[in-house]
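Sequence only, no structure available. Ideas?
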Amino acid sequence: MMEAAAHWAPQVPFGWNPIWVATLLLILTYALITSEKVNRSIVALLGAGAMILIGVLDQAAAIQGIDFNTIALLVGMMIIVSVTRKSGVFEYVAIWSAKKVGANPAGILFMLQIVTSVFSAFLDNVTTVLLVVPVTLVITEELKVKPWPFLVALVFASNIGGTATLIGDPPNILIGSAAGLTFNDFVANLTPVIVVVQLVMSALFHLMWGRGLNSPAECRARVMGFDEGDAIRDRTLLIQSVGVLVLMVAAFVFSRPLGLEPGTIAMFGAALLMLMHGLGKSSEAQSEQAHHTFADVEWVTIFFFIGLFVVVHGVEVAGLLRLLAEKMLVATGGDLRITALAILWVSAVLSAVVDNIPFVATMIPLIKSMAPQFGGPEGLKPLWWALSLGACLGGNGTLVGASANLTVAGMAERAGHSFRFWAYTKVAFGLMLLSVAISMIYLLMFYL
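Reply:
I predicted one. Tokens follow.
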């Protein structure tokens, strides 16, 4: 199958130009995704099917375009989060953080950003906000302060923290798998600037809102009376989950000498945690538990990735991405610095208005095709860091820039708190540009 795919050439009917056909399918797919009129996974799968039916790809070539390492990593991490959240550890940390600063609203604003940023570096950032936001709403209600500053800060922290590691944000998972970059590569090259960005954003949120947050003494006393220990629902599961996560992070760190891909590590870790969680239970109980865990996997997202991989691979096979790479190199004069900065800022602005996942999926083969110009794959590393920083941080710019943003907005609305597009964008877009400017200075200092 793989051999057949490697020699595949587009066989589009009526003598149509494969580049134009693939481009039209890509535009239609993206237009429907951004319109949000049809579920994005359905759109991606329809686009993938159209690529095959029209002859841009055959089925073998389509399968070759699917990055199964990315799929395995996403599924594995989703399973681990599903099991771990049952222990109550995330609620525990949020309450513990609030009490550590004496239930001071400004201190809580800072602590919850740090907690969210750290969690988002090691877990899916959408899952992180799903776990932290409900506790935040309870705390702000008890303190009688408006939740708006806290929720905006959590959106930023989730996207900033997710940029720091290979597994923190889907764009990084895509980049790491396609470019052969390890967990250590992301930590060593992106975490330093992400720490700076997070601290700058936290300071600005304090200046904008934190200084003006006040809560009556009796309200703060109620929060101080919360018992974080009550949040832990299963101590055995907590120990098991922490143990598996520590082992996984160690495996990610040593993945290169071990010869393991991130997807293998995540799937094995997920299977191990499910096994430990089911020990001592009947086979029927284990089966029911497994069904519930697998049901928690965001299969809509997984199939969105599968369809998107095929659509982008069709555009690549047709020759569009090679053509665009040549045009970009002409426009930038083949200068690495100009190319990297163009990728950084274009990624940031576009990721603020369109989903950064399909954008990054399209950019990856485009950047890979520039390797001969910049001395091979090693010379592309500054471009990968520019793409990651632009796409992940750019997602903070508007409410539709990243999935975590919409998740927080939806939870706020259901709790009776307004979280509107323009209200958020007026605050967020300028801050997003500042975070990208910091990233630009970092890239210029150390890579360009």
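Residues 408 and 414 are 10 Å apart (CA to CA).
Hope that gets you unstuck.
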